[in-house]
TrEMBL record, chains A, B:
<dbReference type="Pfam" id="PF00376">
    <property type="entry name" value="MerR"/>
</dbReference>
<dbReference type="InterPro" id="IPR000551">
    <property type="entry name" value="MerR-type_HTH_dom"/>
</dbReference>
<protein>
    <submittedName>
        <fullName>Cu(I)-responsive transcriptional regulator</fullName>
    </submittedName>
</protein>
<dbReference type="InterPro" id="IPR015358">
    <property type="entry name" value="Tscrpt_reg_MerR_DNA-bd"/>
</dbReference>
<keyword id="KW-0805">Transcription regulation</keyword>
<dbReference type="InterPro" id="IPR011789">
    <property type="entry name" value="CueR"/>
</dbReference>
<keyword id="KW-0963">Cytoplasm</keyword>
<feature type="domain" description="HTH merR-type">
    <location>
        <begin position="1"/>
        <end position="68"/>
    </location>
</feature>
<keyword id="KW-0804">Transcription</keyword>
<dbReference type="Pfam" id="PF09278">
    <property type="entry name" value="MerR-DNA-bind"/>
</dbReference>
<dbReference type="InterPro" id="IPR047057">
    <property type="entry name" value="MerR_fam"/>
</dbReference>
<keyword id="KW-0238">DNA-binding</keyword>
<dbReference type="InterPro" id="IPR009061">
    <property type="entry name" value="DNA-bd_dom_put_sf"/>
</dbReference>
Length: 128, 128
DNA sequence: CCTTGACCTTCCAGTCATTGGAACCCTTAC
DNA sequence: GTAAGGGTTCCAATGACTGGAAGGTCAAGG
């Protein structure tokens, strides 16, 4: 299977697939004409990575998860540890963004947004 | 004022301040010895940028906000538009992260996390 | 047989907002 | 004189792609 088919089947752009090969995430075979030749397993792994990325896992997490996925004697505790750590990071980021949102929405509400220059948003950022 | 004092007064690392000068966000004077010489206004602008960055504004947004801040005939509507757009982006990102969190926390809950290989997390990422 | 268009290849550069390090200069105190 | 603790510049790396250039390959149509 050529890269375009693999891209359509996995939902990843060809550029991204080439990048994943470059960093050693996948190792597709090559045809005689030097084209990449993707097996069903390659496509499956690409879709695996795509789903992990959609959950926000880093590339290095994906590498570790893929290795665990291929290790039939893995311990599910190892997978869970990676997922739990990532979940903690997501929750921390949500808290941080919620704080920004609260501050910012209060400022936006307070700003009249007209032709005049007085603005609580700028006032807040200039230190009141 | 040397860069270290400006860093302490603004809460930004010296490296970051040099970077902000490099991209034209600030334009501190230079002493005879080629050291940067920060005025009170420079430090004030740095603190302004630091607060805007803490609210998640991009550097380009900071540039625009700083320009509006210095323009005494600005319209607060222009400030509000930038802030509202950024607020929308934050809210979109929170929704996206909350979705990741929901999916991921369900998977983490479902995973026993023991020495055995069966794992709903990997199962989900491999396409069930 | 030739051309056209849609593929494919590699490599280089850019994104965003820093951060680290190297190599070197300046100032102050002892 | 020298050591500590500033300062300077420039280059390279981060993460995860993405765009573009220059060129090779392949199937179909004239």
């Amino acid at each position: 299977m050529n890269i375009k088919q693999a891209a359509e089947a996995s939902g990843l752009p060809p550029k991204t697939i080439r990048y994943y090969e470059q960093i050693g995430l996948i190792k597709p075979a090559r045809s005689a004409n030097s084209y990449r030749d993707f097996s069903e397993t390659d496509v499956h792994n690409l879709a695996f990575i795509a789903r992990a990325r959609a959950l926000g896992f880093s590339i290095e997490d994906c590498r570790a998860l893929l290795a665990l996925y291929e290790d039939k004697s893995r311990a599910s505790a190892d997978v869970k540890a990676i997922a739990q750590r990532h979940l903690d990071e997501i929750e921390a980021k949500i808290l941080q963004l919620a704080e920004m949102r609260d501050t910012l929405s209060a400022l936006v509400l307070a700003c009249r947004g007209n032709h005049r220059p007085d603005c609580p948003i700028l006032a807040s950022m200039s230190g009141d």
